[in-house]
Amino acid sequence: MSNDSYILTFACPNRPGIVAAVARTLFESGGNIQEAHQYDDLETNQFFTRIRFNFVSGSIASFEQAFAPLADELKMRWTLRSRAQRMRVLIMASRSDHCLADLLYRWRIGELAVDIAGIVSNHPRETYQHHDLTGIAFDYLPVTPQTKAQQEAEVWRIVGERQVDLVILARYMQILSDDLSAKLAGRCINIHHSFLPGFKGARPYHQAHSRGVKLIGATAHYVTADLDEGPIIEQDVERISHQDQPDDLVRKGRDIERRVLARAVFWHIEGRVIPNGRKTVVFRD
């Protein structure tokens, strides 16, 4: 039995027999199912599945050849990749570096099985002098309203030349243009605070404190042209009391942002997130 495992995800219109047909194709190709998740969205009549499998005999090539006609017949949107094939990740950050530091730590200890294609920042490398960036490409790309188009063209060049699979906005405090957002659709994750009620603009934690909020949180989502309104992957909250000062909210907010972004990135690289219109289906481990 092969130790290599693969992840198959798909979404398609629901109908009887989908699971049986896919399982039969895997079996006839020498495949062995190790983990399976499925979800039937009654609102959209779409069926979603994630399967992790390896081979007792046969090969991935023979399975793909057998599966492709079935996928066409069932009108599937599908992905298939080896778990040994590590995604190439580009991290974009600004002055606030807590999410960047957390991702680098998880990467170094092997929790995030990715290859870092580089770090892009609108602040110089010296901003992160207390981090170990040894061996990581760093691109300082300052941006102004006048240079935004040229700066984003350079970001897109880096994405292409370094074969980037996923862009992570780790508190990157610049709004991506509609054009770049569209180019990165489905492969760019952002993290931002989320309050009840919501506070936009400068010093959101101070605004929240002045209104006496009782909950603060964070949201990780895919980037779209609609600012901070892309399909949500993960969220978390923490209770706040009248004793908490603005600095307490900032500190607690950093912790929430770190863990929410890490979960979203992990689920994405594990193929556990499947787009569902303006929402996502997340098969948590």
From TrEMBL:
<dbReference type="InterPro" id="IPR002912">
    <property type="entry name" value="ACT_dom"/>
</dbReference>
<comment type="similarity">
    <text>Belongs to the PurU family.</text>
</comment>
<feature type="domain" description="ACT">
    <location>
        <begin position="7"/>
        <end position="85"/>
    </location>
</feature>
<dbReference type="InterPro" id="IPR045865">
    <property type="entry name" value="ACT-like_dom_sf"/>
</dbReference>
<dbReference type="InterPro" id="IPR036477">
    <property type="entry name" value="Formyl_transf_N_sf"/>
</dbReference>
<keyword id="KW-0378">Hydrolase</keyword>
<dbReference type="GO" id="GO:0006730">
    <property type="term" value="P:one-carbon metabolic process"/>
</dbReference>
<keyword id="KW-0554">One-carbon metabolism</keyword>
<comment type="function">
    <text>Catalyzes the hydrolysis of 10-formyltetrahydrofolate (formyl-FH4) to formate and tetrahydrofolate (FH4).</text>
</comment>
<dbReference type="Pfam" id="PF01842">
    <property type="entry name" value="ACT"/>
</dbReference>
<dbReference type="InterPro" id="IPR004810">
    <property type="entry name" value="PurU"/>
</dbReference>
<dbReference type="Pfam" id="PF00551">
    <property type="entry name" value="Formyl_trans_N"/>
</dbReference>
<protein>
    <recommendedName>
        <fullName>Formyltetrahydrofolate deformylase</fullName>
        <ecNumber>3.5.1.10</ecNumber>
    </recommendedName>
</protein>
<comment type="pathway">
    <text>Purine metabolism; IMP biosynthesis via de novo pathway; formate from 10-formyl-5,6,7,8-tetrahydrofolate: step 1/1.</text>
</comment>
<dbReference type="InterPro" id="IPR002376">
    <property type="entry name" value="Formyl_transf_N"/>
</dbReference>
<dbReference type="GO" id="GO:0006189">
    <property type="term" value="P:'de novo' IMP biosynthetic process"/>
</dbReference>
<dbReference type="InterPro" id="IPR041729">
    <property type="entry name" value="Formyl-FH4-Hydrolase_C"/>
</dbReference>
<feature type="active site">
    <location>
        <position position="228"/>
    </location>
</feature>
<dbReference type="GO" id="GO:0008864">
    <property type="term" value="F:formyltetrahydrofolate deformylase activity"/>
</dbReference>
<dbReference type="InterPro" id="IPR044074">
    <property type="entry name" value="PurU_ACT"/>
</dbReference>
<keyword id="KW-0658">Purine biosynthesis</keyword>
